[in-house]
Amino acid sequence: MNKVAHKSIEQVFSVPFSYQVFFTKGLFSLNNNLFADLVSGHKIPKVYFVLDEGVVNTHPDLITEIKSYSDKNREVFTLCAAPLVIPGGEQVKNNQQYFQDILKATNEYGIDRHSYIVGLGGGALLDMVGFAATVAHRGIRHIRIPTTVLSQNDSGIGVKNGINAYGKKNYLGTFSPPYSVINDSDFLQTLAPRDWRSGISEALKVALIKDASFFVWIEGQVADLLDRENSAMDDLIYRCALMHMDHIASGDAFESGSSRPLDFGHWAAHKLEHLTDYRVRHGEAVAIGIALDTTYSYLSGMLSENELNRVLKVIIHLGFDLYLPELSGEVLLKGLEEFREHLGGELTITLLDKIGHGVEVHEMDLSLIIEAVEKLKNLQLEHQKA
User: Fold this and answer.
1) Hey, is 182 helix, strand or coil?
2) Contact 215, 358 (CB under 8 A)
3) Are strands 78-79 and 160-165 parallel, antiparallel or unpaired?
4) DSSP structural state of residue 200
5) Which helix (H) or strand (E) holds 164?
6) From CA 52, how far away is CA 58, in angstroms rounded?
7) pLDDT recorded at residue 254
8) Residue 250: exposed, middle, or buried by beta-carbon count in 10 A (0-12, 13-18, 19+)?
9) What is the distance, to the nearest Å, from the Cα of residue 69 to the centroid of all Cα atoms in its chain?
10) CA dihedral defined by 90, 34, 248, 263, rounded to 10 degrees?
11) Mean pLDDT value of segment 346-370
């Protein structure tokens, strides 16, 4: 029997990605040219703002400032419509109506690939706006203006966009770098205390898996990091953002493999957010997830007791919980399988064999997870009694 002959044409090309993260204050002050310079070009582009309602409420002059800034720079860019103000937090990723509202706006206002969609708010809003910008016209230039510690040092500066679906976090989304990111430290000053500290957990995460000296710095700066009058938070955001971007550039930026070291502590965190109906902030859930995987690392013989105690002490002193009732039970363990599905391959979890060095494992002992949860529960009770 003759074999069927086949022909093929192989296409190979590469596309370079480049974007900058800027650090500034008073972004829409009339004497700050950063934004105008960023969008200036050979023609006057349309700019469409999507604003976090919580930020608008705490910065009541924001829309007026944007309008005045646009008026001053009318020869550089134009606002194609009034800003869209929508809720922040996970609800903006759970309710697809907000995603559709942005897509509808691109059609109504003629927002094309030479225009800019600007997302200003916390990480959840930026995830959703970035997803909408990516799919409309196969990609509209997107500028992120993160307004929380967590989004300025982690989620807002990366290449991920998405929304939640089917009860799973970030089930729908894309990998698409922003046109640029602008961190304005003034937005941080109005954060609630829990949101101020929430983003520190992502810095703690990257320090534990990549840089022991950064962990030692955080360990010694806990009081200063919680003091808004201190510059320690600015230093933490810059250092964490730099490490995050270095990681993206050094390997699998679009996560085509199963390795996800920057998701240390996240398999449990993602499930915990869902189990609490997103009552728990992402950063708070990550802190608990870090505590769980660090404790698991100790129980499995990978990490010393002294190092475990140092990590848990920092988490406690930053004001995070070590345990919540939702952490217990079989439902949490389903988070492991959901995490594997999200990776699209074999289960890959980052654990610690020492502070500053993460290692990947492809299976976890469920009995040790339960033991780690119980240990954290007891430590939490001891801390509450102290």
Assistant:
1) strand
2) no
3) unpaired
4) H
5) strand 160-165
6) 10
7) 65
8) exposed
9) 28
10) -20
11) 92
| Alpha-carbon gap, residue 282 to 200, rounded angstroms | 11
For 328, other C-beta atoms within 10 Å of its C-beta total 14
Q: Which of 264, 227, 260, 250 is nearest to 342 (CA)?
A: 260
For every residue of 71-127, which 3-state class applies, written as one string? Answer: HHCCCCCEECCCCEEECCCCHHHHCHHHHHHHHHHHHHCCCCCCCEEEEEECHHHHH
Least confident of 185-199, 268-282, 331-345: 331-345
Question: For residue 348, what pLDDT is reported?
Answer: 86
φ/ψ of 42, rounded to 5, equals -80, -10
Residue closest to 188 by CA, chosen among 226, 158, 218, 217: 226
Compute the distance between CA of residue 84 and CA of residue 132 in angstroms, rounded to an integer. 13
Q: Residues 186-201: pLDDT tens digits?
A: 999 999 999 999 999 9
Instruction: Please report which residue ranges of 182-281 form alpha helices under DSSP H.
Output: 193-198, 200-210, 212-220, 222-225, 232-250, 266-275
What count of Cα atoms within 13 Å lies in the side-chain half-sphere of residue 314? 28
Q: What is the pLDDT of residues 65-120, one digit of tens each?
A: 999 999 999 999 999 999 999 999 999 999 999 999 999 999 999 999 999 999 99
Cα separation values, 293 from 266, 297, 302, Å: 9, 6, 11
pLDDT of res. 249: 80
What tokens were used for 240?
């964490």
pLDDT per position as a tens digit, 130-158: 999 999 999 999 999 999 999 999 889 98
